[in-house]
Amino acid sequence: MIQLNNIEKYYANKGIKNYVLRLVTTNIKQGEFVSIMGPSGAGKSTLLNIIGMLEEPTYGSYEFLGEDVTSLNERKRIELYRNHIGFVFQAYHLIDEMTVYENIEAPLLYKKVGSSERASRIADLLDRFNIVAKKDLFPNQLSGGQQQLVGIARALAAQPSIILADEPTGNLQSAQAEEIMTLFKKLNQEDGITIIQVTHSEKNAQYGNRILHIADGIVKEDVAILS
Ligand code: ADP
Ligand code: ADP
């Protein structure tokens, strides 16, 4: 599903290249649940953003679902992103002026999904995540855990094949974090959604089936978790 070949990323500053990623080569198959771990500044978010097409590598090739991402123009990349990828952020990134319902609906409007289909998908997600009663509230009226459920519902609305999550429980208490990780595991095992998360938490990583350890922009270890 994801094939990264010799991916490099640097930021140039006064002619000096500061490398964030160096020659990262890895393959992620459909149905995997991968955790990217490593020290702060190791390049984890950068790698996730490259996988999610939010950032471009400075060198190397990237194939997503058989498409050579590095050769696509921006319009094609956005289309590929909208059709296949759901992003979940540490700080939720919900739109404060929109209700829960409207936040979940936003990606469906971008994709021009018809109104009855929109309503039924949103109703399913609200029901599934137990937030029906919150649908007309605004993000700042919700707990962090509830906001993250909305963030995940929004990411799922367009029925992506993959969820990318950057420290999805980084701002949450441990009970809420466990709820979110249990949900991810279910989405992976029952719905077959591929999941890639950045996490500092060994406990969170244990919900998945593989850990990529990154340090200094290099994949140091690639470990399977046997359950
Ligand atoms: P987090 O690691 O919590 O996701 P950020 O992604 O905001 O935090 O930033 C990660 C690191 O990247 C930080 O150390 C920050 O200083 C650095 N950083 C982010 N943006 C820039 C930038 N435009 N120029 C230089 N350093 C940056
Ligand atoms: P991690 O997620 O592992 O904490 P990041 O991928 O956020 O690491 O950042 C890795 C390195 O890239 C950091 O040293 C950071 O300073 C640098 N960096 C990130 N974004 C920028 C940017 N826009 N400009 C310059 N440096 C950046």
TrEMBL record:
UniProt-listed InterPro entries: AAA+_ATPase, ABC_transporter-like_ATP-bd, ABC_transporter-like_CS, MacB-like_ATP-bd, P-loop_NTPase
Question: Which stretches are annotated as coiled coil?
Answer: none
Q: What is one term from the GO cellular component aspect held by the record?
A: membrane protein complex
> Translocase: is it a keyword of this entry?
yes
What would be an example GO MF term here?
ATP binding
Quote the CDD domains the UniProt record gives.
Answer: ABC_MJ0796_LolCDE_FtsE (cd03255)
Q: Does the keyword Ion transport apply?
A: no
The highest taxon in the source lineage is Bacteria
Q: What is this protein called?
A: Phosphonate ABC transporter ATP-binding protein
| Residues of the ABC transporter domain | 2-227
Q: Which family does it belong to?
A: Belongs to the ABC transporter superfamily. Macrolide exporter (TC 3.A.1.122) family.
Alphabetized, the UniProt keywords read:
ATP-binding, Nucleotide-binding, Translocase, Transport
